[in-house]
Amino acid sequence: xxxxxxxxxxxxxxxxxxxxxTKVIMRDVxxxxxxxxxxxxxxxxxxxxxxxxxxxxxxxxxxxxxxKLMKKPHTIGDWSAAVTGMLIxxxxxxxxxxxxxxxxxxxxxVLVKQLFGGIGMNIVNPALAARAFLFSWPSLMSGTWVTPxxxxxxxxxxxxxxxxxxxxxxxxxxxxLPAESLLDLFLGKIGGSLGEVSALALILGGVYLxxxxxxxxxxxxxxxxxxxxxxxVFPLGGNDRLLWMACQILSGGLLLxxxxxxxxxxxxxxxxxxQIAYGIGCGLLTVALRYFGSYVEGVSYAIxxxxxxxxxxxxxxxxxxxxxxxxxxxxxxxx
Amino acid sequence: xxxxxxGGVHPKGYKELTKEKAPVILQPKLVSIAxxxxxxxPCSPLVQVGQRVLVxxxxxxxxxLCVPVHASVSGTVVAVENxxxxxxxxxxxxxxxxxxxxxxxxxxxxxxxxxxxxxEELIAIIREAGITGMGGAGFPTHVKLSSGLGKVDTVIVNxxxxxxxxxxxxxxxxESPERIIRGLQVIQKILRPKRTAIGLENNKPAAAAAxxxxxxxxxxxxTLKVRYPQGAEKQLIQAVTGRQVPPGGLxxxxxxxxxxxxxxxxxxxxxxxxxxxxxxxxxxxxxxxREPGNFLAPIGTxxxxxxxxxxxxxxxxxxxxxxxxxxxxxxxxxxxxxxKGNNALTCLLENKKSSYEPQCIRCGxxxxxxxxxxxxxxxxxxxxxxxxxxLEKGNVMDCIECGCCAYTCPAEIPLVxxxxxxxxxxxxxxxxxxxx
Lengths: 335, 436
Fold this sequence. Notes:
The complex is a heterodimer. By secondary structure, chain A is mainly α. Chain A is 55% helix and 0% strand. Chain A has a single domain, classed as Orthogonal Bundle (Ammonium transporter fold), CATH 1.10.3430. The longest helix of chain A has 23 residues, at 22-44. Chain B has two domains: 1-26 and 102-351, NADH-ubiquinone oxidoreductase 51kDa subunit (Rossmann fold); 365-435, no CATH class. The mean pLDDT of chain B is 93.
């Protein structure tokens, strides 16, 4: 059968591919963050939405600009810059000036992410690093906390007078239970960063990520359980253990950090055992920083510090080589 | 099943394309029979151009680790020359023009009773019949049997067929369960195992029912979870017995021997009917094929004839694969003949490619799915940098190239390709060291 050969694509197996690409994963994270955004709009007004949109735009723009100037292939199509943009807005107060958030975007995308090689190569979480950087303006970052229910219009002036509230974290830091009820803490009717207030919305997003298998329970559960156990065993100020523990879990950035930040692929371990140990480490550091640190919150610094130790945790969790386990009993077994 | 293996993926099966298609007997005009269809030395041709050959006549054999090949049709030898083979190389092939008469070679001997035959005699019959593993790798069956003598306590039949698209073994189990069982009884007679298990994935209820009906009391039928690579030898052994084959080792080291369902049927044909391995069921499938189906085709049938028999292409395919989409070999031309281990021809249409750079995001999904407990993410880095020490430390040689990691990788990095390169680098270095 001498015939003119037909030509086909030659490539190494496998020739099938899962539909879950980087873009699909990043889009799922954006979807999972939407309940928290809706909660923020509900409690703080449309300024929460504009601030988030400015940040998403800023991150995407800086990523596009950097790749363009460096003559590298474009990566904004993978949605990772959009995720960073949303997360940066989520860890800032809703009253933050727009220019500040743009500076944070630049810092996160160009200095933390792109200069290290872009997606997958950065050492620390860009959004958290940007938050740490923003503390160069402490008054903007922790001076004004808008009372929930104060509806800020979409383009309201950054610094708002007369709406400053104490956050639950500030009470906890001095060993007192917050004034808000547990239900308010759970729903998010509290002062705090834009996206961190509503535990309910964050858990909803986390459940979505679990169902879509974007994240596994290993890191968030290890993290939260560690914090729960430590705060239960060592309550400050002679408070009721259970109540103290619940307030510690529901306040501040813990749920946002445990579900969305500590699980960031690039800056967390890849092995199962490593992930569990990493989650426990995040929990230990968070409680230590909350109890002994000079700033009231510890989540972002705990995760940033743990980010730097990922290489160690990766090695920790390497499973046993296939075939090196003890031989099972001869004869095998039935069903 | 209480026990299973670590990792694995769930690729879409597409088995419904051909599941209900009973094999159609194919009578090709020409066959091109490769002299090297197995792991080991190639055969030397025993026939010349112009010579008349009959079905089942030996046309190639050799010394050492070698399995003979036989004429799969009756007719005239028209060429003995280098031809393309599914493996991607050009090897010596005997091309036979089919006279369509299917005249059997008179030397083939039927046996009613095999009680008087010793294991060694049976192994010799199996070798003479040219039987190799029919699941893909093409390991000589007689070698597997003789190296397992006295060591094997568990014989496992692989009917998992975990590769997407393929239904050849499914059809075989439905249509001729008794041949598989009889072949398996021959294996039992040779190896004398304590336990004989037939494993198939639970997406083949009809095959399971057919096998169950033919099943003797001393064999068990295990329905396994649908999870790729359930049918990979090491993973199947792990799922059935809980044992792990040591690195670089053979199943016999943990007392196991695994045979493909089609191989068992071929052993039955060889021992009882005296018929060598000259035809097999092959699934011709994929979105590019007009009428996907199963065919009982003589070994050496040209791909172009198989595709023609399946109604031709709907649209020019992007890839034509010998095997399924997970481990199949991409073909560059259609004028090559099928081989013994060739269970499918999968013709795929073009997939949309991502518009962005494939860059690892360290998601760890590859680590989670690797059934060999490897860390593809780090191996890929080592392979890109040609870091031999890290490749060796990461046990790249343990990789079974199942493709789970590359299938699941969100950045669509060609990980298996990367590891193949890594393995080659290591082998080259080992060879260099040995030469010193």
